Amino acid sequence: MSSNLPVLLFLVPFVMGVSMPLLTAKRRSWCPNLMLGTVGVMLLLSITNLRVVLAEGPIDYAFGGWAAPIGIAWLNDSIAAIVILTINVVSLISLIYGRVVVTTGLEKSVPYYTLILIMVSGLVGIIFAADLFNLFVFLEVAALAGYALVGAAGGKGLVYAFRYLLLGSFGASLYLLGLGHLYVATGTLNMADLAIRLPELLTSTAVASGLIYIFLGLSIKMALIPLHSWLPDAYENAPSSVTPLLASTVTKVALVAWVRIEYSLITPGVEVSHVPVLVLLEELGVLAALIGGSLALIQTDLKRMFAYGGISHIGLILIGVSLGNVTGFAGGMFYLINDAVMQAALFMIAGTVLHYHGAKTLEDLRGVGRQSPWLTGALIVVAVAMVGLPPTGGFFGKWNIILGALEAQHYLAVFAVVASTLLTLGYFLKIFSCWFHQPQFAESESLEVSGALRISLGAISVSIIALGLMSDSIFQFLLESVTSGGA
Amino acid sequence: MGELLQTLIQRPNFIVFAILFLWGIYIMTAHPNLVKKLIGLYIVQTSVIFFLVAFSAKEGATVPILLTDTASVDALNYANPLPHALTVTAIVVQIATLGVSLALVSAIYRKFGSLDEDEILEQLK
Questions:
Q1: Residue A439's pLDDT band (cuts 50, 70, 90)
Q2: Which of A162, A176, A177 sits opposite B105 (nearest CB)?
């Protein structure tokens, strides 16, 4: 039973998603509860999975009993287990929130719930896949559901969903092309197998171009600058009820996929055609962190500002995992987990503000702080975490990335982390100066009516603080899993 | 240069792949019509599938099915089945993408009454 946990984690949302139209043919009102129940079951499964992995170490799951190089394999290791747990916690909270602020018309639409469950199952597949082609298929499963969800509310969202689809599918084609190159050069697609055969082939141009295509394809999916242009438009116009889920998972999971490939295929100090690969990746991360933070600072729309903030954090994580030492790697992975939670919190706040106060830009935010104490509390917690002050996980992630950068003597990376922290502080000051401004209208009653909204805002703030309080044990756990070669 | 030219001429399949791939990108970026952009995307995806099929081709090879289990197997006589399996799956993914994108395009047409990107962007302002 326990060895089948990864497949169950994938099958539960997938089967429920596909059978949702049948199960709710008579009673449409069941949909939201059925979806929340499914994600709740997944959460229990992922907790059990983490315990099993902690007790028994990494598990190779071979489909149909065919062992790895011939059959299709999934790798259920500690990093996969902890990322899955994070994604499940974040999805459950954002979906509870999504029930409250759902756009009119969407809450009765069965395909909407099917799409959410299928996207979650695709994300689970991406994280477990230990085979490049398997990864491609799950990337597309998750991405196709994501395109449809961005356009689900209709209106402007449709046009940006279409753009997202064009860029995303083009990225997937590049990934497939790179995978073909690697297959030609090595004759295998299994990551563990590739890791054995690749090092001696790194001088081959086929391998180099294959890795470049794969990286380009995945960087479109993870919105790495300069391939980020789809993200702000898509998240600005997607329905508020799914933006937290999309923003916290899709880009982060694409980054996890790249980390898996990078970690198993590229050892520190590797040079392809005299280019040190990891240093190049780190510099791309530096660019993304700085440009993303600066673009966030000049936005006037709240959702766009948060979207650019997320783009700059993708850069920070990429810096961490590309430093070539375990401190930086574990710091980057820890920051990734934090970032998933923080992005969900940010877009939940932006969605609530839009839904209850009709505020879209910073100007509209005036006085919101005086009407909504819960929202203000959540915003303060997430701002502290985004800037990276000690009681939250954001601080420990950044701190370890900086320690790793000092260890590797990459002072540019240190500068980028510090500068992006200052930029983050800058745009949160802009938000706060409007938030606590004198209200435009003299109304004082609280606008937060729904208990579910309070629960979700409270839960996400508690998770942010809990990540900070438990940061030491999580970080040690990540460090051990890296040093034992379990990634 | 001469060496590069020789390498290229020996691989006509890859020249065709490169032409299709770049042509697809050109259509995707240059045409304002949304359906034509989709056609461009479709050509890009097809060119990658063509690439997968092209490198798995082998002269004088047959389908990888063993008819007897007594004769010794010579891998040279059989085509590599894996790229073909990948191709079938990639085609399924491509069709799913096309389905979602056509649904989006028709929704855009119903909403904005046009398929021209410039006109739609004009309405979005």
A1: low
A2: A162
